[in-house]
User: Fold this.
Amino acid sequence: MPNNIIYQGAEAILTKTTYHNLPAVQKQRIPKSYRIKEIDTPLITYRTKEEAKLIIEARSAGVPVPLIYDIDQKNGILLLEYLSGPRIKDILNNLENSVLETICQKIGKNIAMLHNHDLIHGDITTSNMIYQDTQIFFIDFGLGSKTTELEAKGVDLHVLMEAFESTHSQKTHCFSWVMDGYRTHYTGKSKAVEQKIHEIVKRGRYR
Amino acid sequence: MICLGIEGTAHSYGVGIITNEKKHCNVLANIIHTYQPPQGGIHPREAANHHVTYADQIIKEALTHAHLTLPDIDLISFSQGPGLGPCLRTAATAARALALTLNKPLIGVNHCVAHLEIGRGTIPACTNPILLYVSGANTQIIGFAEGKYRVFGETLDIGIGNCLDKFGRYVNLAFPAGPKIETLAQQGTTYYPLPYTIKGMDVAFSGLLTGAQQYISRHKPLKDICYSIQETTFAALTEVTERAMAHTEKKQVLLGGGVASNTRLRDMVKTMADERHAQFFVPRKDLCIDNGAMIAWLGYVMHIHGHTMTIKQSKINQRYRTDMVEVTWYA
Assistant:
């Protein structure tokens, strides 16, 4: 692995680079040879384009996200601002409850601000959050969408709930702090969203 | 130690007999009898009646195959859940009767966990995998984390096998439709776009099913639709499996469940694993589908790690989730 690779995820490789002397991250979506071209190529183009659109909209909604420096849709490349902070996933299990509560409320606030503008992240896990300058940056909008549907907002939060259960099983109380932040900042009916989450849990197999 | 396991969560009734060779599983017998509905899908009561009819015959066959008699058995294991109530009750009743008659310990196990443990038990190199468990009712991405088998991803609506069977019924392919769809798909050449639904590490198939049915009503060739269904659903499954592997930083992937027999799915998951420099494993076919040997093996593993069960505790649990099992034996 060349040493400028920061992270190799399931669908993209992140490499550290520069953009006019600014530290930058190149996010390159990798074609998957297990998928036929008819599925793979449109998917990569679509996700790259959607991700860029959603990052821009999230920024105007007031959610901390990296700046976009450049985009190459056809080759599935995004050039993004480099964030040096740690992932929330890597620090969460070692944080004190008082700090944790503040962080979780900020996470909830971010999600609420996205949802206020009908923006769905699509993969809210603690791997996709970076802690920098006391702010929580949301990254990886590759599975995101824009919709007014309550269902999508419920699923969005449910993904995070599951992430807490599977990756931070000693810290599942975090999700209620996330919901505290969400309730405070969501301008729609947060009761309805919570009802939806409950419904999605019940819908799961063997619940 | 010799353990006899009885599987009866759905349409298959299976009796397996295993013994341990040091830490690994040696399958002495694995007899499976599957209920074939005359038409349509599985009716739980009809399937349970089938299990009752074959209950003792299959046990005898397994013993004969293993060259054993009932007194040789040290432990009785059964599938406690999840599954269809009437079927589960049949297997549990047979297991209780055997345990009480022979005066041997009884243990009920989780069917989904058994699918994973039989891989670890029979394939020595398979130590810490992400399991892609694909069957009729179940579609889960499972891995060990923090003391339990966690479900990292699963279907939000119907299981992949169920999706294939429903489509099969729509075009008059007999149950189970998976193998027939696979054969047709091999002749397909044209891809018709279908919904590719991934939410985080979860998948959904009901939209795709509707889409495929619409192509049928528009008279598109069946072989091409079968090809499109396989390519789309299996790619989505492979993608979420890879996501779970990246998320958990695991370097092994294991296939399980009836749909694991599909060669196209195997190819895709193997390709994904190769590209990640990860190891790919799939148990032999009779250990992939619902079977008694995996139930016997998990029963054995839990028993030697101090898990015990009284008759009172042996009540079946139709909604026995994977992450309800305290995994004390993982190493």
